[in-house]
């Protein structure tokens, strides 16, 4: 029985993780749940799963949740909040495995604390790896703590890497669906609305990652995540546009063999893989190979998707540039969703913030968060 701490339990990945727990009650149980602002869902989950601790974003929300748990007769559940709360979840003595699925850098401290506490981490939160990958992977190596990727592309790479040696890898190929605007004329990009950008052709996900997929910044974050998770330079990571999202990624070996991972477009599969590794439990997440007709692979268009180019540049520079890329994007995506800037304003904002970013390499989580705050301030100043 693996006892789980789920950070971001009310989100898309968090809920998919809970559905895996539901499906495999003999393998997994819930020790800790960390949510943000969705108290209704946090309450329903806590009443259903009876964890040891549940955390929400603020003290006020924690008071509300505690009162409602009392009303519901659910006793024995500690209610925590804020960063202390997420850290209490990720380091709980009864947690054997931590699913890191809070969106943005809000999940960073708890993920770092989990690694320092020696807890294996299933990592969905790519922003953590982008902002502080150098620190997180060093801590994981030092403590011999596994970080298992849940992001479907990195999960696929992890699977393809199991059959070869690191020194035998020529390229990691990350597949990208290309998002909803793969074929949109470049002149139309400025008038893309939030509603259009929120319609992803193949995946149902949270709002930020859906917009990031439409700009392809998401793929850029994944390039950086791949460099850190698999310890390769950006020159060994390539992106290929594969609209069917059937091949989740590939690894090309030096002898010329290319291994690909194919499965349904359902995040429950990479979650199950991460939770069960190195085992492969039987599941009903089957893929109908007989129905497969096309597998297209095209080079990415850096002119249409300047965010991808900016991410490769940040990957080369590392450190503060990766932090600023993520922070500026988060601020710009919010502004786009609030209709304060056009779709093309997202890349413009990131480019301008990066132009003012120093080439430094923060060495601690506190320094990473300070750099993150400064980049956000620079982005907000540009947008006001
Ligand atoms: N969805 C996917 O298919 C997918 C695929 C690959 C990678 N990922 C990555 O997985 C992560 C989560 O994505 P998602 O799609 O699940 O996002 P989502 O649906 O927006 O969920 C985000 C989660 O983070 C929580 N949260 C936000 N701010 C918080 C805070 N300050 N403190 C504590 N919790 C907070 C939210 O809580 P409330 O809702 O309660 O506010 C929610 O549980 C992201 O890093 C994303 O890039 C997602």
Automatic annotation (TrEMBL):
Cross-referenced Gene3D superfamilies: 1.10.1740.10, NAD(P)-binding Rossmann-like Domain
Known EC number: 1.1.1.267
Binding site for 1-deoxy-D-xylulose 5-phosphate: 126, 152-153, 177, 200, 213, 218-219, 222
Residue ranges annotated for the 1-deoxy-D-xylulose 5-phosphate reductoisomerase N-terminal domain, each copy included: 4-133
Swiss-Prot/TrEMBL catalytic activity: 2-C-methyl-D-erythritol 4-phosphate + NADP(+) = 1-deoxy-D-xylulose 5-phosphate + NADPH + H(+)
Keywords noted in UniProt: Isoprene biosynthesis, Magnesium, Manganese, Metal-binding, NADP, Oxidoreductase
GO BP terms: isopentenyl diphosphate biosynthetic process, methylerythritol 4-phosphate pathway involved in terpenoid biosynthetic process
GO MF annotation list: 1-deoxy-D-xylulose-5-phosphate reductoisomerase activity; manganese ion binding; NADPH binding
Residue ranges occupied by any 1-deoxy-D-xylulose 5-phosphate reductoisomerase C-terminal domain in the UniProt entry: 147-230
Cofactors required: Mg(2+); Mn(2+)
Residues annotated for Mn(2+) binding in this entry: 151, 153, 222
HAMAP family: DXP_reductoisom
Function description: Catalyzes the NADPH-dependent rearrangement and reduction of 1-deoxy-D-xylulose-5-phosphate (DXP) to 2-C-methyl-D-erythritol 4-phosphate (MEP).
Family label: Belongs to the DXR family.
Protein name: 1-deoxy-D-xylulose 5-phosphate reductoisomerase
